[in-house]
Automatic annotation (TrEMBL):
Keywords per UniProt: S-adenosyl-L-methionine, Transferase
Superkingdom per UniProt: Eukaryota
GO molecular function: nicotianamine synthase activity
Similarity comment text for this entry: Belongs to the nicotianamine synthase (NAS)-like family.
Pfam short name (any one): NAS
Record's protein name: Nicotianamine synthase
Species of the source: Penicillium bovifimosum
Protein's GO biological process: nicotianamine biosynthetic process
Length: 293
């Protein structure tokens, strides 16, 4: 790299370290102008910084960054959860279905879901050779936009589809139930379950054609692969697990799973299809694993 490129790498590293330190000082992740500023600057670095592949590798492999990644991912997940909690509370103040839908339409990243979900379902349908009949979302949260977008797409395309939302936090499952009830009777059949995706309480998933894992499940590649194994053992052969992965500097925020990561669980799953990057500012990829065990 040139001296200018090396200097740019160091500038990004120092700014990231400063922002991680600032993020760790917040006693609460309730939305505030100060928190929004820090999160916005981190997001800009991860999704919009114009650097070469070599510079990305230098940043991601720098010992200071490597040491800080687990902290950043943990804090980012907590902040993202708090943001969804806040939006869920806001939507639940709606007086009726129309107001709830109007509030939901103003969620900052709602368009990302509308763009990427049809692509993801297309990839899933290619692997299954049909549209799924039941989808489970693990780590669904209080504002289950993936489940909602999947259900809306199925309704639009006239596909019968059951949905199961699973989250470890009871309050978030309760909020999700209330939101779907508020949004209308077309979501009455959506089921909810409180469970840890990595634990023994995870429900039987043998009737789910496709199981989504939330991006923020698992701080490391090893953590995520362990969750995938736990999920696969509860699924039927030839069903699929859907993982949103990352590219570029967004790998700072969540693990970027590669084909080699699945080798130690090859008795349970095999990579079936991947599409990357998808549209949207985060440019995440989707990997579909087929259950073989």
């Amino acid at each position: 790299m040139t001296q200018t490129e090396t200097s740019q790498v160091e500038d990004v590293i120092l700014e990231l370290l400063e922002l991680i330190e600032k993020l760790s000082t917040f006693s609460s992740f309730s939305p505030s102008p100060e928190l929004d500023d820090v999160l916005g600057r981190i997001s800009h670095i991860c999704h919009q910084t114009q650097v070469s592949g070599a510079q990305e590798d230098e940043i991601l492999s720098d010992p200071r960054i490597v040491q800080s990644i687990p902290t950043l991912r943990t804090l980012w997940a907590e902040a993202a959860g708090a943001l969804e909690d806040d939006w869920a509370r806001k939507i639940l103040t709606a007086k009726d279905t129309d107001e709830a839908k109007s509030l939901l339409a103003t969620y900052p990243r709602i368009q990302n879901y509308k763009t990427t979900i049809p692509i993801e379902l297309g990839v899933i349908s290619i692997v299954l050779q049909r549209f799924p009949k039941k989808v489970a979302m693990l780590g669904s949260g209080p504002l289950p936009l993936t489940s909602l977008s999947i259900k809306n797409h199925a309704i639009e395309k006239n596909h019968a589809l059951d949905v199961l939302n699973v989250d470890i936090v009871p309050e978030r499952i309760a909020a999700s139930k209330q939101i779907f009830k508020l949004l209308g009777s077309e979501y009455d059949a959506i089921l909810h379950f409180v469970s840890d995706a990595s634990g023994t309480s995870l429900p039987d998933l043998k009737d789910s054609d496709a199981v989504y894992l939330a991006s923020l499940i698992g701080v490391s590649n090893e953590d995520k692969v362990n969750v995938i194994a736990n999920v696969a053992r509860r699924m039927s052969k030839d069903s699929v697990i859907v993982i949103r992965s990352s590219s570029g500097l967004s790998r700072l925020l969540w693990p970027n799973l590669e084909m080699k990561d699945f080798s130690r669980i090859s008795d349970l799953v095999e990579p079936a299809l991947a599409a990357q990057p998808l549209s949207g500012p985060t440019k995440h990829s989707v990997v579909v694993l087929r259950v073989v065990g």
